[in-house]
Design goal:
The protein is an alpha+beta fold. It has 30 helices and 26 strands. The longest helix has about 30 residues, at about 50-80. Bound molecules: zinc ion (ZN).
């Protein structure tokens, strides 16, 4: 029944659009009536028994499926109705609201959450979503549309914000809109699950009304306490490299950890220990349960009043709840707590259910409370981990699980400590083995040293660092000890992570294969006879051997990643790959390279042969350092001046017209700039030096071609046209990456006419500040397409509407947009 319910939910999560609320409501009522009817109804005796049983089972399972489908649908419809009204997007709205959560400062400004109380547009009250994510930036007042003049005055600087404060400020709002790629993070789902339906930045320029602190209220006491603690930890161990680790462990603020440290944690497979995710809270509850059980047994008095195991369960769940609340009660923490509370409630009620049923019930509970968890990697990781703990906990005679330590601690402590360590190691081995196929499915990598790192890390982090860090709340000097312990641990991780083959990157498998292998991994860890456990190993082998398909010989594919405002196109042939530009830098800490491109190359198991950096602008080379670090074997072709920090190696070449090479029958050629351009005494503008790349498939007259233009402007286009006319070469291409993101400085009429593209792609950010693509340019391409004969289709795509875009030279009409292929109802549809 639970599985049917979860299947129904999974089905609902595949919906591209929501149905009417009334439909879900009707389905929900029907399912409930059927279930209620079944509970009280007995089939007439004249039916054969098997028939009756089968019919009833079928009816009940279908009702559960419908229930699982209708419930999240109903909730989503209600939630959807409160979204940001499109008319308010991009408008200045005056908002009176309360600060919630922990405000996060960085060099760019401060980011915080608001709980809206009242809002006005031009003096008239308007309805806003209750929760908004807000940025308040330092520096110049940002320009938000191309027509607006830049404010050359410093805007009012962000102030010290505290949870529970009531503010009135002017906000510029937008709907949550993230980059959507075929794999990886779904920002809009993340916002949906957190209940945040709009993002905004503070308008604090000279012309805007200054943000005003209206009152300091007593709301959000836990957040205020967490903020105080964070400042106290910072004051206590400010200079330590493990400061971020301590802040993350105590107050659950993971943004305190630097990106390099995250990469280290991920590479050594211990990231789950640092983020206060499901696993961590599970471990914490288990430890608390053990401690409370042990204390309880010290007193015969208490044991008589209330049985020790019950007290231990209650205490464990309570402690986990307090910890979850304290760590900011993020969605993963809530989910895990629900799961634990469900298990505890069953144990306390005295029902001796077998563990798989308890496990399934926990699954059902979480999916009931948070249906969108089904889409989250972290949920399945902690679900499997809880399952492994439950399974071993149910067989204490075979395995001394941590929950049973208390029984013998007093009597034969020394001997049993050894046994316990052995048990912990075995527990860890089981969890790691069970999670390994799952991490391949979810993250496309398997940490070889993860097992070793975890054996060390689990006891060290859960038994030493975390208690010391938590103890620091009462006795601050303990934080210095915790910092020392953290530093030692991170040094060890660095040593482990430096091993060759530390991380084994595998291509991201298709869902069916990953799920099957995940099941095989779990089977391997179950307390079953070995010949049964090993049944799943062929599936695991298949997972290791699976390779994503590559283009056929003579053909090529283009994958334009969704990286926001910038360019990044992966060109693949049968055995080679080239990356054209690397997208923008998002902040001091993050860029398109480490956020999107490196994970994408890993997931597809692509080894780059060449990196082309069209020109030096930040929206083209922002991710270059990260890509180069991950793919050091790739040579670099660019128009960057020599001595540019990105060109530190001998494998860097200048791109210049006339360079051509062939990969697997596919011709690649640089069309621009001319070698003379570099020789001028004053170099042209970076845009004018953009490397233009032409890719053409094999196949003679039927050959398909693509033109990647960088930020070339009209003058450069004219040069290209002139040269093409002089040499008799055609500029025509089936696919065109529109020059300069569709700016009106490019795409001159003559150029558009000469290229005559069938597929036109603009890579530009949603509501970018330059107003790309320019409406006149969009119109120019549409006008041209109107002259195409009706039987030949063409398509126009831009990143805000399309997300990532995949185009294949052997199926030129069937370009695939991530936003269409993966459309779900929580995605934002750009107007
Ligand atoms: Zn650009």
């Amino acid at each position: 029944m639970v599985l049917a319910f979860v299947a129904g939910t999974a089905l609902q999560l595949q919906q591209a659009r929501l149905w009417l609320l009334a439909v879900y409501l009707a389905l929900l009522c029907v399912a409930l009536v059927v279930l209620a009817h079944h509970a009280f109804w007995r089939a007439p005796a004249k039916w054969a028994r098997w028939y009756k049983g089968a019919l009833q089972a079928w009816v009940v399972l279908s009702a559960c499926l419908v229930l699982g489908f209708a419930w999240p649908g109903l909730r989503a419809s209600v939630y959807e109705a409160q979204r940001l009204a499109p008319a308010l997007v991009g408008r200045d709205v005056v908002v009176r609201a309360m600060v919630r959560g922990l405000p996060q400062s960085n060099p760019m400004g401060v980011r915080f959450g608001l709980e809206v109380e009242q809002a006005w547009l031009d003096g008239a009250p308007v309805a806003l979503p209750a929760r908004i994510d807000v940025g308040w930036y330092r520096g110049l007042a940002p320009r938000s549309s191309p027509t607006e003049p830049e404010h050359w005055a410093l805007q009012r600087q962000p102030q010290d914000l505290r949870p529970g404060e009531r503010w009135q400020m002017t906000l510029r709002l937008k709907a949550p809109h993230g980059n959507l790629n075929f794999q990886g993070f779904d920002y809009e789902l993340w916002m949906w699950e957190r209940g945040v339906q709009a993002s905004a930045y503070v308008r604090a320029g000279a012309q805007d009304a200054p943000p005003q602190r209206l009152a300091v209220t007593l709301w959000y006491p836990v957040d205020r306490w967490r903020q105080n603690l964070r400042s106290r930890i910072e004051a206590a161990v400010g200079g330590s490299p493990s400061l971020g680790l301590l802040v993350a462990l105590v107050v659950g603020e993971q943004s305190a950890i630097s990106n390099t440290d995250w990469a280290l944690f991920r590479a050594t497979g211990v990231a789950h220990l640092v983020s206060i995710s499901g696993l961590h809270i599970t471990m914490f509850a288990w430890a608390a349960r053990w401690l409370i059980g042990w204390l309880w047994r010290r007193s015969p008095h208490w044991c008589l009043a209330y049985p020790a195991p019950h007290a231990a369960w209650l205490g464990g769940v309570f402690a986990a709840g307090a910890y979850a609340l304290f760590s900011g009660a993020g969605v993963p923490a809530q989910r895990t707590w629900i799961m634990l509370a469900g298990v505890a409630a069953l144990r306390l009620s005295g029902l001796r259910w077998p563990w798989p049923q308890v496990w399934l019930l926990a699954l059902g509970l979480v999916v009931l409370c948070d249906p969108w968890a089904v889409m989250q990697a972290g949920f399945w990781l902690s679900f499997v981990a809880v399952g492994v703990l439950l399974a071993t906990d149910a067989h204490p005679q075979q395995m001394e699980a941590p929950g049973h330590i208390g029984n013998w601690w007093g009597a034969r402590a020394g001997a049993h400590l050894v046994v316990q360590c052995g048990a912990l190691v075995r527990e860890q081995l089981r969890i790691s083995a069970a999670l390994a196929p799952l991490t391949v499915l979810l993250f496309g990598q398997f940490s070889v040293v993860g097992l070793a790192a975890n054996l060390l890390a689990v006891p060290w982090v859960t038994l030493v660092i975390t208690p010391l860090a938590m103890g620091g709340v009462l006795c601050p000097p303990l934080w210095s000890l915790a910092a020392l312990a953290g530093e030692g641990w991170m040094a060890t991780l660095q040593w482990l992570g430096a091993w060759p083959w530390a991380v084994w990157a595998l291509p991201l498998p298709p869902l069916w294969l990953g799920a099957a292998a995940g099941g095989a991994g779990i089977l391997l860890c179950l307390p079953l006879p070995w010949h049964l456990r090993l049944l799943g190993t062929p599936l695991l082998a298949a997972l290791l051997l699976w390779r994503p398909p590559a283009p056929p010989v003579g053909e090529f594919s283009l994958l334009a990643a969704d990286i926001g405002q910038g360019n990044a196109v992966l060109v693949r042939t049968a055995h080679h790959a080239l990356l054209y530009d690397t997208g923008p830098r998002y902040s001091l800490e993050s860029d398109a390279g480490q956020r999107v491109l490196v994970p994408l190359l890993d997931a597809q198991q692509v080894r780059l042969d060449r990196l082309v950096l069209s020109h030096r602008d930040a929206d083209h080379v922002g991710g270059a350092a990260a890509v180069r670090a991950a793919q050091p074997q790739a040579d670099v072709l660019s128009s960057l001046e020599s001595g540019h920090p990105l060109l530190d190696q001998a494998s860097a070449m200048r791109c210049q017209a006339g360079q051509r090479w062939e990969w697997d029958g596919v011709h690649l050629e640089v069309l621009h700039p001319l070698p003379e351009a570099y020789a001028q005494s004053t170099l042209p503008k970076p845009n004018a030096l953009s490397c233009v790349l032409r890719v053409q498939s094999a196949g003679g007259p039927q050959a398909r071609s693509a033109l990647l233009m960088g930020d070339l402007e009209a003058a450069g286009e004219a040069q290209l046209l002139g040269r093409a006319a002089a040499t008799g070469q055609s500029l025509a291409a089936d696919f065109l990456l529109v020059p300069h993101h569709g700016s009106k400085t490019s795409s001159s009429a003559a150029f558009v006419e000469a290229v005559h593209p069938r597929t036109v792609l603009v890579q530009a950010g949603y509501r970018n500040r330059y107003g790309h693509p320019a409406p006149t340019v969009v119109q120019r391409y549409h006008d041209l397409a109107a002259s195409y004969p009706p039987e030949s289709p063409w398509q126009w795509q831009d990143s805000p509407h399309c997300g990532a875009f995949l185009w294949k030279s052997w199926e030129p009409e069937n370009g695939i947009c991530a936003r269409m292929a993966m459309q779900r109802y929580w995605h934002h549809a750009a107007p």
